[in-house]
């Protein structure tokens, strides 16, 4: 017996036990239950945490089973993404949503657009999680509502075969609700602040929280200069704070992504506490750049001196008071960061790199896996990379090293359209197309995401529409560039009244008022043109 049939039967008993409820239709009530499967954010967090854990285990057995997501800055964008995935690919398996701190700062702050420096209201992060899941749940309700209306029509026409088919679709319905990997930046304050925000995010539905090892009040976008990291113990305290939040709320298998910015971060705000040679603090301090102190005459007023590697060291301190790491120490610091995070409660890693290069990523991951064999990454397929130029240059360099003639190419100018149809560019595009598959296999990347793709698609589509509409094309710019494509591609929101919930409202009016219901979907509704 299907879940919905069980609900119908149990609701019949409830209605029959309450004499004044005789006008309540148990099947309608059961439909409403089916359309509202997740009652709370914690229900969602547990459901999606289970999915992520299953996917992580599947990837460990077979790297072709990697997962993907796109960053979404509004509930509607997330909803349309998942509707598109179900329409084109048939199922949502291994497809997630990403909540980008960058896009929250740029698009969701009451201050207006802000840089990715943790200046936006931290509660806007949990608010967006709740909004995304509200829209995904509405997508479920809308799609199921359409199936219920089709079921009623099949019953009325006596088409038992179609009725059986529709009932099967309802009984085996796949939800639009999927895991969200949610960016908590550097925790928005101390460990207690991190814990409080993590709780809000989990209560809103987050099963996976990503946190980075930058200083909260100096946080920068991973693709900007001036990044400042914290000693490991400071970062581990925040990882523990997030784990406590998951455990307190009963999401015992919640997922933590530990991000390291050490590859591009050349500064630290503080010297680590160390108690003995070789401990974690001593290892952190060993990366500090500075001068060896031979005597008191080498120390000036205000200088700081530490003992590192068996010697007294005067770390280089900038006018800002920040301390500088040794040039070229980034990869070693990344490896230590990652091993330490995995050994202290993190589940996945995020290494922020300056370019998308499988070999570079794999070199670091292989070192990490010497200590933690099942280490795996969440990787940012960032729009901050010039993917075209990067991969054309990678092919150029490989060809040159192999002795192939590259004299017809200008390496510095490979972005030029004149190279678009060349063999070099075609090979580069093939490498871009295979990047996620190759990196999953060779570099331990479990999850591929693009942080802010829908920021760029919104800008691009708006530019194209504005150019034509306010130019010579006028209304044809919208009709040809938008509506005609929506109709021909079967974009659901071409029927925007339906997408906004009009038909669901009509269903409810009929449930509540019967034949007296004043519906919006009658013959004069212009949506009937579609």
UniProtKB/TrEMBL annotation:
SUPFAM superfamilies: Phosphoenolpyruvate/pyruvate domain (SSF51621)
Signal peptide: none
Catalytic activity: D-threo-isocitrate = glyoxylate + succinate
Keyword list, A-Z: Lyase, Metal-binding
NCBIfam families, per the entry: PRK06498.1
Record's keyword annotation contains Lyase: yes
Stored PANTHER family: BIFUNCTIONAL GLYOXYLATE CYCLE PROTEIN (PTHR21631:SF3), ISOCITRATE LYASE/MALATE SYNTHASE (PTHR21631)
GO molecular function, one term: lyase activity
Protein name: Isocitrate lyase
Top-level taxon of origin: Bacteria
Alphabetized Pfam families for the sequence: ICL
InterPro entries membership: ICL/PEPM, Isocitrate_lyase, Pyrv/PenolPyrv_kinase-like_dom, Pyrv_kinase-like_dom_sf
Membrane-crossing residue ranges in chain numbering: none
């Amino acid at each position: 017996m299907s879940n919905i049939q069980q609900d119908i039967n149990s609701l019949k008993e409830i209605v029959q036990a309450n004499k004044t409820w005789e006008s309540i239709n148990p099947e309608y009530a059961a439909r409403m239950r089916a359309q509202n499967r997740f009652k709370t954010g914690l229900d969602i967090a547990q459901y999606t945490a289970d999915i992520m854990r299953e996917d992580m285990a599947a990837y460990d057995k077979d790297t072709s089973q990697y997962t993907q997501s796109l960053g979404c800055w509004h509930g509607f964008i997330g909803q349309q993404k998942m509707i598109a995935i179900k329409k084109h690919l048939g199922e949502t398996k291994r497809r997630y949503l990403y909540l980008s701190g960058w896009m929250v700062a740029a698009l969701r702050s009451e201050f207006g657009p802000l840089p990715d420096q943790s200046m936006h209201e931290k509660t806007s992060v949990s608010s967006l999680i709740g909004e995304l899941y509200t829209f995904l749940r509405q997508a479920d309700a809308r799609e199921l509502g359409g199936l219920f209306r089709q079921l009623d029509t099949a019953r009325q026409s006596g088409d038992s075969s179609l009725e059986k088919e529709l009932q099967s679709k309802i009984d085996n319905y796949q939800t639009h609700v999927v895991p969200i990997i949610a960016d908590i930046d550097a925790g928005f304050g101390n460990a207690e602040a991190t814990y409080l925000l993590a709780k809000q995010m989990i209560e809103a539905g987050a099963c996976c929280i990503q946190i980075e090892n930058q200083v909260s009040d100096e946080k920068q976008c991973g693709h900007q200069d001036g990044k400042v990291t914290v000693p490991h113990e400071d970062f581990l305290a925040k990882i523990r704070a997030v784990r406590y939040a998951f455990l307190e709320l009963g999401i015992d298998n919640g997922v933590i992504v530990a991000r390291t910015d050490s590859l591009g971060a050349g500064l630290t705000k503080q010297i680590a506490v160390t108690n003995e040679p070789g401990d974690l603090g001593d290892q952190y301090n060993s990366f500090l750049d500075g001068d060896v102190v031979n005597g008191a005459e080498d120390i000036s007023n205000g200088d700081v001196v530490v003992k590192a590697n068996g010697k007294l060291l005067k770390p280089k301190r900038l006018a800002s008071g920040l301390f500088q790491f040794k040039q070229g120490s980034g990869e070693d610091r990344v490896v230590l960061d990652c091993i330490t995070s995995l050994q202290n409660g993190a589940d996945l890693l995020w290494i922020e790199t300056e370019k998308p290069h499988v070999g570079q990523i794999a070199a670091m991951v292989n070192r990490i896996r010497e200590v933690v064999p099942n280490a795996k990454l969440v990787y940012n397929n960032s729009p901050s990379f010039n993917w075209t130029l990067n991969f054309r240059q990678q092919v150029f360099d490989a060809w040159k090293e192999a002795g192939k003639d590259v004299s017809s190419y200008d390496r510095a100018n490979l972005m030029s359209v004149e190279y678009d149809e060349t063999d070099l560019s075609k090979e580069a595009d093939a490498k871009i197309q295979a990047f996620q598959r190759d990196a999953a296999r060779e570099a331990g990347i479990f999850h591929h995401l693009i942080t802010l793709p829908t920021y760029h698609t919104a800008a691009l589509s708006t530019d194209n529409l504005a150019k034509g509409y306010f130019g010579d094309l006028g209304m044809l710019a919208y009709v040809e560039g938008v509506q005609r494509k929506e109709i021909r591609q079967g974009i659901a929101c071409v029927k925007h009244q339906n997408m906004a919930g009009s038909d669901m409202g009509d269903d409810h009016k009929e449930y509540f008022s019967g034949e007296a219901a004043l519906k919006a979907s009658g013959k004069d509704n212009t949506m009937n043109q579609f």
